[in-house]
């Protein structure tokens, strides 16, 4: 990959790939089809070359939160992360290493880990290192298409045409049958919940209809991928210290500041703040806030607040002559943040990650109404400020998108804290019940971190109490509890190659609630790890289940009963029952300490 740094892929490389693939496609079509004369007049090579030339120019350049509206070449700031599949760790610097896993691949990763940049890299790397025509598909674009009109095949063709592909759809379909494509579906988690089942079916049907092509899907982790049985699921690894330092060294930034930060990152910052420094987005924000910081916050909420303040007030450290960007809307920091918080709240819950100007202005207008600002301001000026001055939105073509979804999630949570208890309870609970099965966001974690006790009281306490009451009515039956929440077990391999018995979620809402209550109570998940590694009974049962059903398999409770393996399976998920008992046993203390407080003046003062 180092050979590609700062260099565009040469026209000769593109021409050779297009010519070779074009000839191969034509030969395969000629063998399969009778109307060879018609197809002999079609030059796939020219069509592919035009498409690759245009798409490479676009995809090789990217805008980031650091550079604002100035696009930079991908390899001037990109650091290749590894991905893992079971005990395998795969070097992604050469896309062939990824494709060796199979024709159908899912790559998952948390926010800011660099999934979209990895997909861009795979596109560019495929031009130089494969005999495949890469196509990068941003799935969030499907959100603007009516559900009944969604066709992945048509969407791929339309994407090709945007970049100059000049063959009729009939010939494109012929080329799909030859397996000459690498289709990179980016951002599956950004598809609206209401469209996810349709998009899932389209992707799976497409991959089955044209099995010789390679299909790679990127997303935040989702439980539903268990059902994508033909796909190999991998997860992105974080930056190690060497990679973090390498990334910083590449960035176009004030050299003196960068060197100071690099030195401190090497000596102490990476080790002290690894959870931030190992994430490309958060590491970049650390650099941006380095000049003004007194210390780096210990939690994400303070981290994002500090980052937003830096973006609002910052001088442009990528330029030699530092200057302060003018806020053309005329709003001060607090008022600007109020409007932005509602803008993020509204767009987040409407599944809007990309906007045209009309939609963006509508959200700003609504924010003006909801935040009761005394000062009037121009919506267009505010939109321009978000793009040019504060750099929280990126403007590309006719559309706007968040410089990173993490800011949208954080400020959506900030606005949620301003709702009354009743509003917060009804709204968040309703949202969770309707969408808990596809939660791919840090929104709940952020909300809990911003107001932990209020989050517990409004969102968690009542549903957990209801589960506990039902559990007691059913004589604290482990079978009742586990089958209320799950549909069966999953036999998985850990990164260390050890067998772990996990559970397949049936009730997404209640699982989400219990999981966040565990976090609120600071449950020690390390106990689960120790149990699976040291408990002899667990190790024996896990081996037996693996031997009978195989690795990475799902087994329903009904099947376990039929095979007389049900009781053994319950022993293998002791970690879950330990966690549930910890939660249920804590409810009395929560009620006494939180709801049973005296209302004397001194107690009220302490609470306030």
Describe what you observe in this structure.
With 608 residues, the chain is of the alpha/beta class. The protein folds into four domains: 2-236, 3-Layer(aba) Sandwich (Rossmann fold); 241-313, no CATH class; 333-418, Arc Repressor Mutant, subunit A (Orthogonal Bundle), CATH 1.10.10; 424-608, no CATH class. Helices cover 56% and strands 11% of the residues. The protein has 28 helices and 15 strands. The strands form four sheets. The protein has a seven-stranded mixed beta sheet with strand order 4-3-9-5-8-7-6, with helices on both faces. A hairpin with a 5-residue loop joins strand 13 (486-493) and strand 14. Helix 1 crosses helix 3 (44-59) and helix 9 (241-250) runs antiparallel to helix 10. It is globular.
Q: What portion of the residues fall into strands of 2 or more residues?
A: 5-15%
- Named at the architecture level, the CATH assignment of the largest domain is 3-Layer(aba) Sandwich
Number of domains: 4
Structural class determined from secondary elements? alpha/beta
CATH class of the largest domain: Alpha Beta
Describe the secondary-structure layout.
Elements lengths: L10 H22 L3 H5 L3 H16 L1 E2 L9 E2 L9 E3 L2 E3 L4 H5 L4 E5 L6 H15 L3 E6 L13 H11 L6 H8 L4 E6 L6 H17 L4 E6 L12 E5 L4 H10 L4 H18 L1 H4 L2 H11 L9 H14 L19 H17 L4 E3 H15 L7 H11 L3 E4 L2 E4 L2 H12 L4 H15 L7 H8 L1 H22 L4 H8 E8 L5 E7 L2 H13 L5 H9 L1 H14 L3 E4 H6 L3 H7 L1 H22 L5 H7 L1
Parallel strand pairs: 5-8, 5-9, 6-7, 7-8
Antiparallel strand pairs: 1-2, 3-4, 3-9, 10-12, 11-12, 13-14, 13-15
